[in-house]
Amino acid sequence: MENILLGIFDILNFGLLVFLWWFTVKHYKALPQSIPTHFDFEGKADNFGNKKYSFFTPLFLTVLYFFLAYMVRTPGSSNYPVQITDENEYAQFLIMKIFLRWLLLLISLIFLNSQDYMFRYARDKEAKPKVALSSALFSVIGSLIVLFIFIGVSK
User: Distances in Å between the alpha carbon of 101 and those of 14, 15, 64, 126?
Assistant: First the structure.
């Protein structure tokens, strides 16, 4: 069962990475020469750059994807908030494998939302993000809380 769950996460994460690249390439020609590259807390663009910067997000996600894929494949190389023993090794490694995949899924969705917002804002200054950044960040923070509860229970 766990291999099915991990496989589903792997397929979703790789699919989101490919989709982000496809989305960026598809909309690249329609972008104006200057696009927003940074937003303030109110969602207003406060820094602009060449449209080539639109490839930064998928490139960064690709690097993160391969880094986390390495971490998942070598669980002993990660840092753990508890001592790893023979009794808790399986549970702690499984928690880490699931959490890193879940975290990559959340980050991929945040990047997709940001890329979509950046592209729409480049054409319409009144555009709003489809998901507020605060909601996205709370999902990551909430996931960390759940993670530490599972780690504490599985000591």
Answer: 10, 13, 11, 34
